[in-house]
Design a protein that fits this description.
It comes from Echinicola vietnamensis (strain DSM 17526 / LMG 23754 / KMM 6221). By secondary structure, the chain is mainly beta. It is built from 11 helices and 50 strands.
Length: about 1050
C-alpha cells in the first residue's frame, strides 16, 4: 500500500493483525481547514441570529423613555434606546432569548423574545423610594406622606462606615447634624447637635470644644429613651431616623427640643432560619501628629529662648551665639548634645492598635412567630499604651401573633463594656519633654526623671504601669409590647420599657505616676459607682380610617409615664502601702480625701394626640399636641402644652404636572411646632425651683459636728424653656428620579432659656436659675442623590448633603448685652447678636519689630512680642479692645459619598467637611513654647518664630510672648476628611451554590485615611481638647467578611 499511495495524508498500520488507516495531516492543511472553518462557522451562526426592534415607554403616561438599557440576558451584549425610546438589538436563538430592560426610576422588566421581531415594553415607575417606611415616633408613615423634616439611614449605610460607635455612622452623613468626639480615646463618648445650639447656659463647656451633652438630641432605641447610644453595636442597627424640625419632634414634647434620633435594632423575619456572620479586623495608627522640635533644631530654639528672656526685660544686648548652654541645661543634657544623642519621646510611647468586631446573628420564623438573636464582640485598642475598649453585646427579640385579636413582642438588648483610658499625663509629658533628655539609665531601664534635677516632668514610659483608669458599664434595655386589635383598623398597644445602667469607674495612681512624683505617700485610689434605672410606659391607641376614595385619616393617642432614678457614690483615698491591689482595696489608704454621694429622681407624665389627614393623596395635614407634666418644676409650672402643625402638597400628582416628564417628584412642606426643655441638661440644677439641703462636717470647739446648709436659692417661677420652629421644605426628583433630594429652610427661636443669673452675695448665694435668655437658629439644609451612570454592569451613584446654620443670641437679662466666661479670663462671651459661646479676644496684628521698638514701648511691650490691634485707638490695650473673633460652630458643613458598582465589585469613598469654625487650640497653649516663664522649659511645636535675624510676623520670640499672646491660641479649624474608602466583592451564585451559602462578601476599608487642614495641632475637630483626652487623629486599615447561611 505504501507504493500505491506514496504521498497521501494517511498511513497504514497493523494492530492485532488488523489493518488500520491513520491520518497524518501536514500543518499547512490543518491551518487551511481552520481558516475555512472560521469563515464558515459565523455564517452558520448568522443563520440563527435575529434582529429585534422595539420601543420602551412609560407605563404611567405612555411617553417614550430615552436612554433605557436593553440587554440580551446571558450574552453581555445590548444597546440603549434613542430619543424616541426605540431600540434595535441582535439576539441568538430568538426562540429562547430574554431581554432585560431597565431605566433609573423604573422597575426592571425581563421579556421573552419568543421569535418576535418587534416588541413594545412598558416600564412601571419604581415607587419603592416613595413607599419607604419612615419611623416618626409612636408610628410609621410612607416617605411620600411625610410632612416633617426626617432623614433616614439604613443598615447598609451604617455598616458601610464600619464604626465602633453608632454616633460615628452619622458623622457627615446627615445635613444639619454636627457630631464631635468627647475625646479620641477608644470608647469615648460623642456630643451631637442638630440645627445649632439651643441654650446660652454659662456652664456650657465651649472652652472644651463648644459641645455640651445637655444639648444632645433625644435618643429612642426600640421605643426606649436613652442618654447615650455608644453601648450599641452598629451592626445590630436596622435603621436610624433623624427627626429635625419641630413638627416631627413635637410628639416628644419637652424632650424633643434638641431633635430626636430614633433607632431600631434588627428584628426577626419570616422564613427558614438564617445565620449571618459579620467580621472585620484592622490596624489603627495615629497620623498627622504635630511636628515638634528635634535634635539641633531644639538646641537652637533653646538658645533663642534664652535671648528672648533677656528681650522681655528690655535687654537687647544678648545674641544666641553668646548663650552658654552649661548655664541653663542639665548635666545629662549637655552630654547628650555633645554626643548628638537625642530622643523622640512620641516614638517611644506610640504603637499601632488593633480594632475588630465579630457579630453572629440568627433569624427566622413563620406567619405566627418570628425571632432574632445576635451576639457580638468589639475591641478597639488605642495607639498609646494603656488605652483599650472592649464591648460584649447580646440582643434577642420575639414577636408572636397570639390570635386575630392579640399579639405580643419582646425585645431585649444587653451590653457590657470595659474601657481603659490609660494615663492622662503620658501623652502630655511626651510632648513637653525636651529631646535632650535621657529616657534610660546605664542598665537600659527607664529612669523616672529624664532631666537631672528637673522634677516637674517625669518619664512617660512609667505611666502605663502606674496608672489604671478603668470604667465598666452594664446596659440593659427591654421592651414588652402587648397589642389588641378589637376591630379592623383599630390597634391598642401597651409598651413597658425598662432601662438599666450600672457603671463603675476605678482609678489608681501608683508611686511612679507623674501625679505622685515617686512618693509612696502620694499614691491614690478612687472609685465612683453610678447607677441609673428608668422606665417608660407608653399606652397607644391608633386608628386608621378611609372614607370615600379621596380621604385617609390616621389618629394616634398616647398616654406615657417616664421615671428616671440616678445615684452615685464616690470615695478617694491616698497613701497606700502597696500598689498590688489597685483601687479594689480602696479602704487600705490611710488618708481619706473624699467620701461623697448623690441621688436624683424625676418623673414625666404626658398626654399626646396626633392626626394625619390625606385628601386625594395630594394634600397632607399633620396636627400634633402633647401635654407634659414634670416633677422637677414648681407646682404652678409643672405642665406645658406643645403643639405643632404641618402641611404638605404633592404637586407632582396635580393634573397640570402630567404632561411633562422632566420632573418625577415634587412635594412642598410647611410646618410650625413648639417643643420644650425643663433644663435638666447641660449642668443646670435639677429641681431649681426648690431649695436643696447639703451637709458637711464642721469643727465646733474640739468636736467635729455634722451641719446642714441650703445649697441653692429656689425659684418658684422657674418654668419650661420653649423652642418655636418654622420649617419650609421641598422634596424633588428629576429625570425619572435619576436626581432627587430635599431642601429645608428653617427658623428656630428659643425663649425662656434657663440661665444662672448672678445676684448680690448679700443673699448668701452667687446666683439663681431664671428663664431669661433668648436665642435663634436660622439655616438651610440640602440633601441630593443622583444616579450618574447606569449602563449594563456599571453603575455610579452620588449622595451629597450641605448645611449652613446661623446662630445668635437675641436677648440676655435686663440691660445686659454680654456675659464673659471661660478658662482664660474673658476668653468666651455670650453676646447679643453673636453666636452662643463666641470667642472673645484681641485681634492679632503680627509681631513687634525692632524698628517699632518705641511704639511697642508706648504700649508697654518689646520687639518680638505679640502685637494686637488698638480697636478704639486710645493709645492703650485693655479689655475694651477685645471683640468677637469667631465661633466654634462651623459656618457650613457637608458630606459626599460616591459609589461605583461593576458586576460583583463595589467601590465607595466618602468625604466630609466643616468650614469656618474657630477654636481654642490646647496644643498651642501647652506645646508651642514661650508661655512658661522658664526659658525653653518644655519642647515646642515647630513654628516660624521671631528672632532678630528672622523678623517673622507669624509667631513671637521664644520666652518673649508678651501680655497679649492669647489670640495665637485661637485657630481656624476648617478641615476636609476622607471618612472612608471601601472596596468590596460579592461572590456570584455558582460559588454560593457550591459553598451552600446565601451570600458572601469580602471587603477592604480604610477609615479616616486622609485629613486636609491648615491647623497644626492634633485633630481640628478636637482642637480644644487637652492631651488628657488624646485629641490626636487615627486611621484604620481593615478587612472584613459578610457571610449568610
Amino acid at each position: 500500500m505504501k507504493h500505491i499511495f506514496p504521498k497521501k495524508p494517511w498511513k497504514w498500520t497493523t494492530l492485532d493483525h488488523k489493518v488500520q488507516m491513520q491520518w497524518k495531516v501536514p500543518l499547512s492543511i490543518m491551518y487551511a481547514v481552520i481558516i475555512l472553518l472560521s469563515i464558515h462557522v459565523p455564517q452558520a451562526v448568522l443563520a440563527q441570529t435575529a434582529e429585534i426592534s422595539g420601543t420602551v415607554i412609560s407605563g404611567e403616561d405612555q411617553q417614550p423613555i430615552p436612554g433605557a438599557t436593553v440587554l440580551v440576558k446571558g450574552s453581555g451584549t445590548g444597546t440603549v434606546t434613542d430619543l424616541d425610546g426605540n431600540f434595535t438589538v441582535k439576539v441568538n436563538e430568538p426562540a429562547t432569548a430574554v431581554l432585560s430592560i431597565s431605566f433609573v426610576g423604573y422597575v426592571t422588566q425581563e421579556i421573552s423574545v419568543n421569535n418576535q421581531s418587534t416588541i413594545q415594553v412598558e416600564l412601571d415607575p419604581d415607587v419603592s423610594q416613595l413607599d419607604e417606611v419612615v419611623v416618626v415616633g409612636y408610628g410609621e408613615t410612607k416617605r411620600k406622606d411625610l410632612t416633617g423634616s426626617v432623614v433616614s439611614m439604613d443598615s447598609k449605610n451604617i455598616q458601610e462606615a464600619n464604626k465602633v460607635n453608632a454616633f460615628q455612622a452619622l458623622q457627615g452623613q446627615v445635613a444639619g447634624v454636627n457630631i464631635q468626639a468627647a475625646d479620641n480615646k477608644p470608647g469615648g463618648g460623642f456630643n451631637v447637635r442638630i440645627r445649632g445650639s439651643n441654650t446660652i447656659n454659662a456652664n456650657e463647656t465651649v472652652e472644651q470644644g463648644g459641645f455640651n451633652p445637655g444639648q444632645n438630641p433625644l435618643f429612642v432605641v426600640d421605643g426606649i429613651f436613652v442618654n447615650d447610644i455608644s453601648f450599641l453595636n452598629p451592626a445590630d442597627i436596622e435603621r436610624m431616623d433623624v427627626l429635625k424640625d419641630a413638627s416631627a419632634t413635637a410628639i416628644y414634647g419637652s424632650r424633643g427640643s434638641n431633635g430626636v434620633v430614633i433607632i431600631e435594632t434588627k428584628k426577626g423575619s419570616e422564613g427558614k432560619m438564617t445565620v449571618q456572620y459579620d467580621n472585620y479586623i484592622g490596624v489603627k495608627e495615629a497620623y498627622n501628629l504635630p511636628d515638634m522640635l528635634q535634635g539641633e533644631e531644639f538646641v537652637q530654639y533653646f538658645r533663642d529662648a534664652v535671648v528672648g528672656n533677656f528681650y522681655a526685660s528690655g535687654d537687647f544686648s544678648v545674641n544666641a551665639g553668646d548663650v552658654n548652654l552649661s548655664d541653663y541645661m542639665r548635666p545629662n543634657e549637655l552630654e547628650n548634645v555633645a554626643n548628638g544623642d537625642y530622643v523622640n519621646w512620641i516614638d517611644l510611647i506610640q504603637h499601632n492598635g488593633m480594632q475588630q468586631n465579630h457579630t453572629l446573628s440568627l433569624n427566622g420564623g413563620n406567619d405566627k412567630t418570628v425571632y432574632g438573636i445576635g451576639v457580638a464582640y468589639t475591641q478597639d485598642e488605642g495607639t498609646f499604651e494603656g488605652e483599650d475598649y472592649e464591648r460584649y453585646t447580646i440582643r434577642g427579640n420575639l414577636s408572636s401573633k397570639l390570635s386575630d385579636l392579640f399579639s405580643v413582642a419582646f425585645n431585649n438588648y444587653a451590653s457590657f463594656a470595659i474601657r481603659n483610658e490609660g494615663s492622662r499625663e503620658g501623652l502630655r509629658s511626651a510632648y513637653r519633654l525636651r529631646p535632650t533628655g535621657t529616657p534610660f539609665d546605664e542598665n537600659g531601664d527607664p529612669q523616672f526623671f529624664p532631666l537631672q534635677g528637673e522634677t516637674f516632668i517625669t518619664n512617660p514610659l512609667f505611666e502605663p504601669d502606674n496608672i489604671t483608669r478603668e470604667t465598666r458599664t452594664l446596659n440593659y434595655l427591654s421592651n414588652l409590647s402587648l397589642s389588641f386589635t378589637p376591630v379592623e383598623n383599630l390597634k391598642i398597644s401597651s409598651n413597658f420599657s425598662p432601662n438599666i445602667e450600672f457603671s463603675r469607674y476605678g482609678e489608681y495612681r501608683g508611686r511612679y505616676a507623674k501625679s505622685t512624683s515617686g512618693q509612696q505617700g502620694n499614691t491614690r485610689a478612687e472609685v465612683n459607682n453610678r447607677n441609673r434605672i428608668s422606665y417608660t410606659w407608653d399606652n397607644i391607641v391608633n386608628y386608621n380610617l378611609e372614607f370615600g376614595s379621596d380621604h385617609r385619616l390616621n389618629t394616634t393617642f398616647v398616654y406615657s409615664l417616664f421615671m428616671d432614678r440616678y445615684e452615685n457614690y464616690l470615695m478617694q483615698r491616698r497613701n497606700y502601702g502597696t500598689d498590688e491591689f489597685l483601687f479594689y482595696n480602696i479602704d487600705a489608704g490611710s488618708d481619706l480625701r473624699t467620701a461623697d454621694g448623690g441621688f436624683s429622681k424625676q418623673t414625666l407624665e404626658s398626654y399626646t394626640a396626633r392626626v394625619n389627614y390625606a385628601f386625594k393623596d395630594k394634600y397632607l395635614l399633620t396636627l400634633t399636641g402633647r401635654y407634659d407634666g414634670s416633677s422637677i418644676l414648681a407646682e404652678q409650672n409643672k405642665w406645658a402644652f406643645f403643639p405643632s402643625a404641618a402641611f404638605a402638597w404633592r404637586i407632582i400628582d396635580e393634573g397640570f404636572m402630567q404632561d411633562q416628564n422632566f420632573i418625577a417628584d415634587l412635594k412642598l412642606r410647611l410646618s410650625y411646632g413648639e417643643t420644650g426643655n425643663n433644663g435638666t441638661g447641660g449642668g443646670l440644677v435639677p429641681l431649681g425651683s426648690l431649695s436643696l439641703i447639703g451637709n458637711n462636717f464642721t469643727n465646733i470647739g474640739d468636736q467635729v459636728t455634722q451641719t446642714a446648709y441650703v445649697t441653692n436659692l429656689a425659684n418658684q417661677d422657674l418654668t419650661w424653656e420653649k423652642t418655636k420652629e418654622f420649617n419650609f421644605g421641598l422634596d424633588f426628583g428629576f429625570f425619572n428620579n435619576r436626581l432627587y433630594g430635599s431642601l429645608d429652610i428653617y427658623h428656630r427661636k428659643n425663649t425662656g432659656i434657663i440661665f444662672f443669673r448672678p445676684i448680690s452675695t448679700v443673699s448668701g448665694f452667687s446666683g439663681v436659675f431664671q428663664n431669661v435668655g433668648e436665642a435663634e437658629n436660622k439655616g438651610i439644609e440640602l440633601g441630593l442623590n443622583s444616579v450618574n451612570i447606569h449602563t449594563g454592569d456599571f453603575k455610579w451613584t452620588t449622595s451629597l448633603n450641605f448645611a449652613k446654620n446661623n446662630n445668635k443670641i437675641t436677648k440676655l437679662y435686663g440691660d445686659l448685652d454680654q456675659i464673659l466666661f471661660g478658662v482664660q479670663a474673658g476668653s468666651y462671651v455670650h453676646k447679643v447678636g453673636e453666636p452662643v459661646g463666641s470667642i472673645y479676644s484681641y485681634v492679632f496684628d503680627g509681631i513687634w519689630q525692632l524698628d517699632e521698638a518705641d511704639e511697642a514701648q508706648s504700649y508697654g511691650q518689646q520687639p518680638g512680642q505679640v502685637r494686637v490691634r488698638d480697636l478704639n485707638d486710645d493709645g492703650s490695650i485693655d479689655a475694651d479692645d477685645r471683640t468677637v473673633i469667631g465661633s466654634n460652630m462651623p459656618k457650613w458643613s457637608g458630606g459626599i459619598a460616591n459609589t461605583f458598582n461593576y458586576k460583583n465589585w463595589d467601590f465607595t469613598f466618602f468625604v466630609r467637611t466643616n468650614q469656618g469654625a474657630v477654636s481654642a487650640s490646647y496644643f498651642h497653649i501647652s506645646h508651642s513654647g514661650g508661655f512658661d516663664s522658664t526659658p525653653a522649659r518644655f519642647n515646642s511645636l515647630q513654628t516660624n518664630y521671631w528672632t532678630p535675624d528672622n523678623p517673622s510676623n507669624e509667631w513671637f520670640q521664644p520666652s518673649n510672648n508678651g501680655p497679649f499672646s492669647e489670640p495665637l491660641t485661637y485657630h481656624d479649624v476648617s478641615f476636609v476628611k476622607v471618612g472612608y474608602i471601601t472596596l468590596g466583592y460579592n461572590f456570584k451564585q455558582p460559588v454560593l451554590d457550591a459553598l451552600k451559602i446565601q451570600n458572601l462578601r469580602l471587603y477592604f476599608t480604610a477609615q479616616n485615611p486622609f485629613t486636609f487642614t491648615n491647623y497644626e495641632g492634633w485633630d481640628p475637630e478636637n482642637a480644644a481638647r487637652n492631651s488628657w483626652g488624646s485629641a490626636y487623629m487615627s486611621r484604620i486599615f481593615m478587612g472584613g467578611i459578610n457571610v449568610k447561611f
